[in-house]
Amino acid sequence: METVHFTQQTFRSLMECFSRPGNQQRLEPSQEITGLYSATVSACLTLLDGEVSFYVANECPVIQSEIRAWTGAKLVSVDLADFIIISADCSEQQAQHALQHSKVGNLIDPQLSATILYEITDHIGNVVHLQGPGIQHTKAVQLNVPEQWLQLREMKNNEFPLGIDVLLINSNSDIIALPRTTKIQEVKQSWHT
């Protein structure tokens, strides 16, 4: 697929996810970067360029150098990063550290916040109920992320318009967005198979 067409298609899918939180979209695979899902690479190639910065939560040198080479984005510390990539092989501590230290913008420029690209596994997770713009009433979805991570996300987003946006990506190239405006109303444990 032609690069411009691919990037436009990926961007439309990402915007659809952010405008309808909890709805799933599938990204087409693009380039391969060892240690990342193909959909994560597609999102990086679409969202990152020489004007933005990024941080890789496990600080893997291969991932860092490949993203720099493909996108031209600047590698920075977690507290300065526009985009934070949490790969599937990150520990829970690395994921929590990345979220704790992510920037939330300021009242003059709330857009100067971080977007988290968080790779999740394909196992059944907890049922969460989402509410906010783009959701008619509430939306129930299953998310395989630790409950304490979801609580930390809520704390980062408690002073709107400040906050972070999260893109959850699985190995099947399915993506779900949790914009800062989306509230998680409750978490119910589900049965794991």
UniProtKB/TrEMBL annotation:
Kindly indicate whether the keyword Lyase belongs to this entry. yes
| SUPFAM superfamilies cross-referenced by the UniProt entry | PhnH-like
> InterPro entries from the entry?
PhnH-like_sp, Phosphonate_metab_PhnH
Q: Which Gene3D superfamilies match?
A: Bacterial phosphonate metabolism protein PhnH
Keyword annotations for this protein, in alphabetical order, are:
Lyase
Keyword hit for Nuclease: no
- MF terms in GO: lyase activity
Protein name stated in the entry:
Phosphonate C-P lyase system protein PhnH
The species this protein belongs to is Solibacillus faecavium
